[in-house]
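To: structure desk
From: M.T.
Subject: fold request, one chain
Message: Could you run this one when you get a chance? Sequence is below, nothing fancy, just the single chain.
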Amino acid sequence: MRVAHIHSCGGVALLTEQEVSRSWIRLFAGGVEVTVETFTKAETLLEELRPESPLYHRLQNELEEIRELHAPKKTKKKKAQKLKI
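Reply: Done. Structure tokens follow.
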């Protein structure tokens, strides 16, 4: 079993940016089904990063894009128009 290197910041254990990045890649690897649990894990990974981190902002934007891609598609209802002659 591999133990992640954890850094302590004010008594709180944090993953390194490299570890978060590696976990993120595994989470959204090609062919892996994206579920609600996947989004929850992604949000947990984001919480491991400092809010001012460029990686935090990049992954946050990526997560928004992934959510949009996996959002249920809305179907447009075609309104039937009657022609008056």
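Reply (cont.): Strands lie at 6-9, 12-15. Let me know if you need anything else for the meeting.
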